[in-house]
Design a protein that fits this description.
316 residues; mainly alpha; Farnesyl Diphosphate Synthase; 13 helices; globular
Length: 316
């Protein structure tokens, strides 16, 4: 089923009130899971491949669960903040449970606190196993998540999301396996981080008018429709350009050779046709309403090829 078909089915079901479990599930925006899953895998597999760390499946699972909980909490906090400021009042195919009336504000707040607490428990367990470095790196992302609703209003949300859902997660996962911080996963996660910004920008591009009416100045609002379209294209295809640069450039500069992506990371170029299809949609619609969901879905094959490329580097 395509993203567009799924969106139409979701629209038909908007008026239906599902059970509590489904309402909680929708509130956490499960469609965005690849945004936090891929950086974990990049950091973990990268630590095994590049740093020689042993694969610890229990730590990987715990890291994924903790990251998912932290991501869900950030989504809930953002939804609650936007709703209270009147930014999100119309239900869209990828809207959360709050704007649909499936959860109250107090229920959304309670769920945000609960998921954050679960993430904290996972972080403490990982710190007990791998040392304090993963906990410190994770703690660096919490202020960004909490400050995002404010940063979004001053066109700084893109930078915060790039850092939190790219380099920070990847570096945290790396440290779970090695017990130390490294700049390598920070650099390797940068191409994927551009796609994270692309998802956010697609969302803000769609909401440009309503955000501006309420005094919120996002990057999309600064650039306008034409600029937003070009910016989205730079982010989408910039992920491929940056991947190529990380494969080639560090090999020419001896002091940065450790940060070179393996040649097999070039597998990501196999999904360029899918990126081209998303770009055609972005160019054809004045303000695509499902572009954020389509871009989030694209992150999974891009990330899968990236991770597979790291795994193949063991043998090639």
């Amino acid at each position: 089923m395509t993203v567009m078909e799924t969106a139409r089915m979701n629209e038909v079901r908007m008026s239906e009130r599902p059970g509590l479990a489904m309402r909680l599930w929708v509130a956490c925006r499960p469609w965005s899971a690849p945004i936090s899953t891929v950086p974990v895998l990049l950091g973990a597999i990268g630590a095994v491949v590049a740093a020689g760390a042993p694969m610890r499946w229990g730590r990987l699972v715990l890291t994924l669960v903790g990251t998912w909980m932290a991501h869900a909490s950030a989504n809930l906090w953002s939804d609650l903040s936007d709703y209270r400021r009147g930014l999100d009042r119309v239900a869209l195919p990828v809207s959360g449970a709050l704007v649909r009336g499936w959860l109250t504000e107090s229920q959304t707040f309670a769920l945000a606190v609960m998921t954050l607490a679960l993430a904290g428990i996972c972080g403490l367990a990982l710190a007990a196993a791998a040392g304090p470095v993963p906990l410190w790196i994770t703690a660096a992302g919490i202020p960004l998540a909490l400050a995002y609703p404010w940063l979004k209003r001053i066109a700084a949300g893109d930078v915060a999301v790039f850092a939190a859902f790219g380099p920070i997660i990847s570096a945290g996962a790396w440290s779970v396996f090695t017990g130390r911080f490294s700049w390598v996963p920070v650099v390797w996660a940068a191409p994927f981080g551009l796609l994270v910004i692309a998802v956010l920008h697609a969302n803000n591009w769609r909401d440009e008018d309503s955000d501006r009416a309420r005094g919120v100045r996002t990057v999309a609002g600064v650039l306008g429709p034409d600029g937003s379209r070009r910016y989205f294209g730079v982010l989408l295809f910039g992920a491929f350009v940056l991947t190529a640069l990380l494969i080639l450039v560090p090999r020419w500069v001896p002091s940065f050779r450790a940060a070179a992506l393996p040649w097999t990371a070039g597998l990501v170029f196999a999904v360029i046709p899918k990126a081209a299809a998303i770009w055609r949609h972005a160019r054809s619609a004045p303000r695509p309403t499902t572009l954020d969901g389509e871009t989030a879905a694209f992150m999974l094959p891009f990330g899968a090829m990236n991770v597979l490329g790291l795994l193949l580097a063991v043998w090639f």
